[in-house]
Design a protein that fits this description.
33% of the residues lie in helices and 30% in strands. It is of the alpha/beta class and 245 residues long. It has a single domain (9-144, 190-223, 233-242), classed as Rossmann fold (3-Layer(aba) Sandwich), CATH 3.40.50. A seven-stranded mixed β-sheet has the order 3-2-1-4-5-10-9, with helices on both faces. Strands 6-7-8 form a three-stranded antiparallel β-sheet. Helix 2 packs antiparallel against helix 7 and helix 5 crosses helix 6. The chain starts with 8 loop residues before the first helix and ends with a strand. Bound molecules: S-adenosylmethionine. S-adenosylmethionine (SAM) is lined by residues 1, 5, 16, 45-47, 50-51, 67-69, 72, 93-95, 109-111, 114.
Length: 245
């Protein structure tokens, strides 16, 4: 698969300090994760390791971060060298099945939107399932299948989204980061496509949950700032459990 992140790992790491990350996305993933103390965790599409570090800090005993991009893995390893937490990072394409072990919990924050077709989407879910123990959990963040793009809706949060093309089960979207001079392309899959892929990979109990803003986020910016993104969320948490053997 193409590495869109080859030259932008530094900017991306920086982008992970934005308000949506801090006050909305990270706390929402944390609440979906619940208690991970003592868990073995794998973070698919770990990027620079934001959610790998979150799980380690929340008490996971072993965390492996995997990503397609050597540049992102290099940046994640650099962060590990600067502040050692005991996280292991490996380059790996989630669209090909590599088995690293039997993990209690897997995260995949913005992985599935890189599947260009439903076959690749199915392969990604199968490869996640191959690394999750029966009864183990998947916590994913995906572009909201119900998101309605209006031109400047996300400007206050630092993004602009443009629709590039449309298929029966997906929208192809370009996301530009305002002021950072870089953009990425991804696929907004339908709910049906995700639920089919989950079912085929042996996951059950699919649950969609909306992001919630923290008290600190409300205090800092006020409810009005958050209303547009809460009313029309650009991403949602999709969680599921691997069926028992
Ligand atoms: C938007 S970033 C998210 C990174 C991290 N999960 C986070 O939330 O900070 C998407 C990541 O997906 C990775 N990625 C894209 N396709 C992938 C694939 N087929 N297998 C593994 N990682 C992939 C990219 O290299 C990039 O690091």
């Amino acid at each position: 698969m193409k590495d869109q992140y080859q030259s932008i790992s530094a900017q991306y790491s920086h982008a992970r300090k934005d308000d949506v990350t801090v006050f909305l996305e990270t706390p929402s993933v944390q609440s979906a994760l619940g208690d991970v103390s003592g868990a073995r965790a794998i973070d698919f599409a770990c990027g620079t390791g934001h959610f790998s570090r979150l799980m380690k800090k929340l008490g996971a005993t072993y965390v492996l971060g995997v990503d397609l991009s050597p540049a992102m893995i290099a940046a994640a390893r650099e962060a590990e060298r600067e502040n050692p937490l005991g996280i292991v990072y490996e380059v790996s394409d989630a669209a090909t099945t590599a088995v690293f072990g039997a993990f209690d919990v897997a995260t995949a924050v913005f992985l599935f939107n890189y599947a260009k077709d439903e076959q690749t989407l199915a392969q990604m879910f199968a490869s996640v399932a191959a690394n999750v123990s029966p009864g183990g959990r998947l916590i994913a963040v995906v572009p909201n299948p119900d998101f309605v793009n209006g031109r400047d809706d996300l400007l206050p949060y630092g993004y602009v989204l443009e629709e590039i093309s449309k298929g029966p089960e997906n929208l192809r979207v370009r996301m530009s980061f305002v002021g950072d001079d870089f953009s990425i392309e991804f696929t907004q899959w339908s709910r049906r496509a995700y639920e089919n892929a989950l079912e085929r990979a042996g996951f059950a109990d699919a649950r969609w949950s909306l992001f919630a803003v923290t008290k600190e986020g409300l205090e800092r910016y006020g409810q009005k700032f958050w209303d547009p993104i809460l009313a029309n969320p650009k991403s949602v948490v999709l969680s599921a459990r691997r069926k028992p053997a």
